[in-house]
Amino acid sequence: MKITDGEKLILLMLSEIYDKLGVDGEVEPDFIRSAIFSNNTWSIPWKYVGIPFEEQETPEVVKEVLDVLDMWSMIERSYENLSKEEKEWVEKEAAPFGKNPRFPGFDGNNESEYMGTASFLVNDLDRFEEFKGRNFNSHCPSIESYRRMLEVFKPIVRDLNFEPLSPQNIVDVLKERVHPENR
After folding, report:
1. Percent helix, strand, coil in the chain (nearest 5)?
2. Ramachandran region of residue 79, left (φ > 0), alpha (ψ -120 to 50) or beta?
3. Residue 166 in contact with residue 153, Cβ under 8 Å?
């Protein structure tokens, strides 16, 4: 959603009026403020799907973060369903990333747009609720490894028919975290 600077100011002022008057409407002023201050105005039509907004393209960074969160959600869920022996095998085969694999986030210094988008999707739009309460700062560059992981993950998931990842699938995806030059 493209909102001019003037429109942002008007929305922020209206949000303050909502709060001051104690208006209990369908539009959440805290959400509107958060979307504007974090530059995630693309999310307003996502939150308020009943409003007939103009069709708009989802920003590329949002698409990529959605793919990453979807992948990690499936990795974590699938891993939790493994037997003890399967978990041990994954730990060994996908070392050093195979032990209790969890979404580590994005680099706060160099991937802040990705980190902020992930946090906004989880904490403000209530998507991927399994990641709520987590710190989305990995403290190291991550997006390139996630892109390698997605190249392996997407073809696997296409053929799964909503089944969980197998131990081998998890290993294949997690191994992509290791840079090709270090394999």
Report:
1. 60, 0, 40
2. alpha
3. no
Give, to the nearest 10 degrees, the angle between helix 167-174 and helix 60-80. 140
Q: What whole-number percentage of the chain has pLDDT above 90?
A: 91
The DSSP code sequence of 114-155 is HHHHHHHHHHTS--SGGGTT---B-SS--HHHHHHHHHHHHH
Can you give the pLDDT at residue 13? 96
Tens-digit pLDDT profile for residues 70-109? 999 999 999 999 999 999 999 999 999 999 999 999 999 9
Unique residue bearing structure tokens 């891993």: 79
Torsion, Cα 53 58 59 60, to 10 degrees, reads -170
Tell me how far CA of residue 111 lies from CA of 91, 104, 107, 108, 138, in angstroms: 28, 13, 5, 6, 10
Query: Given a cut of 90, is residue 169 above it in pLDDT?
Result: yes
